# Entry
Amino acid sequence: MRTERVDAVIIGAGLAGSAAARAMASRGRSVAVLEAFQPGHRRGSSHGSARIFRRAYPDPLYVRLTGQAQRLWRQLSDEAGEDLVVTAGAVDYGPAREQEKMYEILTGFGVPAELIPAEAAAERWPGMSFGNDPVMFHPDGGVIDPERAMAAMRAIAAARGAQICYGSPVLSVEADDAGAAVHTADRSWRAPVVIVAAGAWLEPLLGGQVPLPPLAVTQVEAFHFTPRPAGLWPVFICYDDIIRYGVPAGRDGEVPGAVKVGEHLPGRVTTGDDRDGIVRPEVRDRVRAFVRDRLGGLNPTPVGEVTCLYTSTPSEDFILDRHGPFVICSPCSGHGAKFAPLVGEIAADLACGGASPEPRFTLAAHRF
# Structure
């Protein structure tokens, strides 16, 4: 079996792995990216044309990091020559009143935001019902196009010398005296460092070698609805007994202007290899009822439905840390897409000898 040597192997070419490849290749490192599937596959967590970008979090850490990520998205779009994040504005509302806490945090960071009475919000967004609770709007919210973003990052990495190997599932990986060895069916790779950005396949690859926290892999659902009349909707999150979100669906939406709506809840427990892609009827019924009762500007009969994988930590914080020759790159728990270019830079820093930039992202923090 042929063995190749590089400065870094990256396992996984989703948003995190593609961003890490661009960051490492841009630093002059020789890189091999091993992706189990073909470009555009929908087996993991990074596919499709619509993920949310937003500055709003009830946690100052992530508000600060979204600012760094926003600057890096703009740099990536300039380098790629295409808009990868479309600004649509973001609306937060609901009886849990998270929007007021987020407003205080955002304005404390100097992020533009408004807190609007429910009646005024209903006039501004007549397709949405807000009850009696205040509504927060922040104009920096928008829509990430993951497929175009990944393609752009991999193209930049390849132009700077990265080898990108599709259809190359990793069979095993182990530390050795020189760093680590990574084995696929037809060759082996040796490198001082391996960046593992494998999503739902992280624990099967490294669970016996790295002290990972418990990782829950679940299949979640989202549904596409037709607006009436057609028009650009904002990104929105409703904080109620269940957190529900919506985002303009782009190419995935079956019809022009469709809006993707889903629940931010743990889904059906599965694995990366065993997911069935079957939508749970009870989730479909709940989301349809929410659209019918709270989103009068959407036809409550979905025109499409999709499933996706969440890989979640108990705290919902990311894992971005190094253990021996392995960089663990897991911006998980259903909210990592917006940070992709920043995650790539952090992974490259770790691979090049730096420390994790946030104590909460370390393996030790997750253990305790």
Notes: The two ends are 42 Å apart (CA to CA). The chain has a mean pLDDT of 96. The longest strand covers residues 216-225.
